[in-house]
Every structure is written in structure tokens, then in C-alpha cells.
Design brief:
- This protein is of the alpha/beta class.
- The protein has three domains: 19-212, Rossmann fold; 218-296; 303-386, Arc Repressor Mutant, subunit A (Orthogonal Bundle), CATH 1.10.10.
- Helix content is 49%, strand content 9%.
- It is built from 17 helices and seven strands.
- It has a five-stranded parallel β-sheet.
- A hairpin with a 4-residue loop joins strand 6 and strand 7 (354-357).
- The longest helix has 24 residues, at 273-296.
Length: 393
């Protein structure tokens, strides 16, 4: 039997946990012709969310185009990604669209269609910029083909900053599109997304309304996982609550841990504490190389020490006793915390004044590295706790 918890790819629209409010927000914005941006960590379900919105919009006659910009370094990269996104469309306009793309290939001598990508089609110079503008003009042509609305998502949009002035080119083209086409911009680097949309010197300044993607709600996650276990003849038992608490609402980690627990639960059987411990150990062992590499990417003088403080000492790195215990200067904590927030390594825990890890498995990894434990803090430290700064607010 196929494991019902895929974790290595975007989820099918019918497999998404909750997110009804976020999907509705995207669809309302698109109906109003408003550009939207979704900022969230990597593997936090941005693409799955967009595909769900596409599916609901397509039921009403719309067409969704997903342009993956992750890792683009050149203008040619951007042209090919945009072209292939349109080439991937199916349905009634596929034949018409294929002819349009073939025409762009021949006119500008740039490969964008499947096996022909990268092959020079004629002995003439490559017209990358002209090809990009021709591709960006496709929404105006598609409007004549009976499509009710076009939704275009630029995923990992912050990576366009690696290509000189490409955001200017994108903005100069799409600003002339009417409400027929809605643009979504997804990104996983908050500092860079703010640079693109909140710096008045950039082309997209103020051009997209932000949509936040919070952790998955506990009740909906429990219900979904329990149902999928039972549909496949297994029982997650009481340890399901441990799984959901460990995952802390992280969408990919929820599916990853559920995948492991399901694999360790025998057919027709019920998971118990030993099953869960084996599943968690399996998950941590698989992720250890990546978590180790992430840990070593931080400097030992400050970042690793603040991360250890958050992992071991109730997520409160500002307390003097905590800073002293991990050997970091208290005056540098705010700067480091801000940097870790801007990298989606840590997150604020709502209403608590504490911080947690965006990736809960990384939090477990860091906690396991710590050999010391802070003794009970005196009650007199409560005043310091209340005075802890909140960077970025």
C-alpha cells in the first residue's frame, strides 16, 4: 500500500490540511485584480497553497500558471522558466498556446519547449529580453481565447534579485495588464521580499498585498492525520498528539513525521509510544546531515549560542542568566535574533514573548547538542523577563 503522507513534493489540492482562509484570501484578491505576495519559509506549503487556489479558480473557468524562479541567475534562466510554465498548461488552449510559444522560439532563437530547450533554432543572435517581453505579453493574447481569468504565480520570487534589473522588466510589462490577470508572488526570504516590495527604489514597491502563512491549526491537523491512518487500515493511537505537538504546525514536518509513523505502524495495527519513538528516531537520522550542515552554517561566536539558548532555555535568549549560560554577550543578542528571524530560522511564539524554531526538527537537533542545563532562575528575574525586547515589532 502506498504511504498516504507524501512529504517530498507539493500536495494535491484535495490533500491540503486546512488553509481554507488563506485560499479564500488569494481568490478574493484575484477576483479584485489585486496582486498578492505570500511570504513563508521553504517547505511551508506555499506551492501547495497556490495549487489549491488554482484548482478552485479553474473550476470557475480560470487558468493558473506557476513560474518557478528558484535559483535563476541569468536573464536566459528567467525566459526559459516563464516559457516552460506556459508550456506546461493543459486544456483547450494547449494547441493554440504551443503555436504561440513555437513562434517566440523561432522569432528570438531561444529554446523553451521541452526537449528543444537550449537548442539554437536558427543562425541568428538570441533575443532574450525581447523573448521575455513576448512571453510576458501572453496574458493579453490568452484573453482572446475564452479564458475567464488568468492567475500567474512567480514562486521563489526573491531570486530575481540575482538577475540585474529583471524586476524592472517584469514590472514594466505586467503593469499594463488589466484585471483579467492576477499576479501572485511567493518567497521564502523575508529580507529580500521586503527589499523587492517595501523599498521605494524598487520597481515592485507597494505593488502586492502581503498574505501570511501561519502554522497549521492543531485540531484540523489531528483530524486529517487520524482520518488518513484509518482510511489505510491503521490506527495512530494516542501518540498522534505527540506527533502534532512535535511538528508544531510546520506543514512539511507534519507530513514527514506522519509518513514515518505510518511506515512503522504494522498493517491493521495501532501505533504506541515505542512506534512513535522509532518513527521519530528514523526521521532525525534521515535529516541529520542536512541539520548538521545548517548548524555549521552559523557562526559559533554568536548565532550558535543564541540558537542553543532558544532551544534549551524556554525560548528566552535575552535573559542575562541565559546569555551567560551559553557564553554570548547580552548586548549582541538582539542583533543575532533579528538576523535569525530574517532568515526564517526562528519565529516568535504568539503572545508569549518567546521564540521557537521554524523547523521543529532543527530545534530538537540543537537541543540534543546542548550538554549543559540552566539552573532554576530566581523569581527576581521575572522583571527582566517582562522587559525583554521584541526586535522587529
Amino acid at each position: 500500500m502506498v504511504n498516504p503522507f507524501p512529504y517530498q513534493r507539493p500536495l494535491r489540492p484535495d490533500a491540503l490540511i486546512d488553509r481554507e482562509q488563506e485560499v479564500a484570501r488569494l481568490l478574493r484578491g484575484c477576483a479584485a485584480g489585486v496582486a498578492l505576495r505570500v511570504d513563508a519559509p521553504r517547505r511551508y506549503g506555499k506551492t501547495s497553497l497556490v495549487l489549491k487556489a488554482f484548482a478552485e479558480a479553474e473550476a470557475e473557468g480560470a487558468v493558473g500558471v506557476l513560474v518557478d524562479l528558484r535559483g535563476v541567475l541569468t536573464l536566459s534562466d528567467v525566459v526559459v522558466r516563464v516559457g516552460r510554465a506556459y508550456a506546461a498548461l493543459r486544456g483547450p488552449i494547449r494547441r493554440w498556446l504551443t503555436r504561440q510559444l513555437q513562434g517566440i522560439e523561432l522569432d528570438f532563437n531561444i529554446g523553451i519547449l521541452g526537449a528543444g530547450a537550449g537548442i539554437r533554432l536558427a543562425p541568428r543572435p538570441v533575443g532574450e529580453e525581447a523573448a521575455l517581453f513576448a512571453l510576458l505579453d501572453l496574458p493579453n493574447r490568452i484573453a482572446s481565447q475564452g479564458v475567464r481569468r488568468l492567475l500567474v504565480c512567480f514562486d521563489e520570487f526573491q531570486d530575481v534579485l540575482q538577475v540585474e534589473a529583471v524586476d524592472d522588466k517584469l514590472r514594466s510589462a505586467i503593469q499594463h495588464h488589466d484585471e483579467f490577470v492576477c499576479y501572485l508572488f511567493c518567497g521564502s526570504e523575508p529580507r529580500l521580499m521586503r527589499l523587492l516590495f517595501e523599498d521605494e527604489q524598487r520597481a515592485f514597491w507597494g505593488q502586492a498585498e502581503p498574505v501570511q502563512l501561519p502554522p497549521l491549526p492543531t485540531a484540523a491537523t489531528l483530524e486529517y492525520l487520524d482520518r488518513r491512518f484509518r482510511e489505510t487500515g491503521k490506527d495512530a493511537g494516542d501518540v498522534l498528539a505527540r506527533l502534532v505537538a512535535t511538528a508544531e504546525g510546520h506543514p512539511q514536518r507534519v507530513m514527514f513525521l506522519a509518513h514515518k509513523l505510518w511506515a512503522h505502524t504494522p498493517p491493521g495495527g495501532r501505533a504506541d509510544l515505542a512506534t512513535w519513538q522509532a518513527a521519530l528516531a528514523d526521521a532525525l537520522l534521515q535529516e541529520e546531515p542536512a541539520l548538521e550542515a545548517l548548524w555549521r552554517s552559523f557562526d559559533a561566536a554568536a548565532e550558535q549560542r543564541v540558537l542553543r539558548a532558544i532551544a534549551v532555555y524556554e525560548g528566552r535568549p535575552y535573559r542575562t542568566a541565559v546569555a551567560a549560560a551559553v557564553g554570548v554577550a547580552r548586548g549582541s543578542v538582539e542583533r543575532v535574533v533579528t538576523r535569525l528571524l530574517d532568515s526564517y530560522v526562528i519565529r516568535r511564539l504568539d503572545g508569549s514573548g518567546q521564540f521557537g524554531f521554524v523547523d521543529p526538527l532543527f530545534g530538537l537537533f540543537v537541543r540534543d547538542l546542548a550538554e549543559q542545563r540552566l539552573p532554576e532562575l530566581a523569581d527576581a528575574d521575572e522583571g527582566e523577563r517582562a522587559a525583554e525586547p521584541d526586535p522587529g515589532r
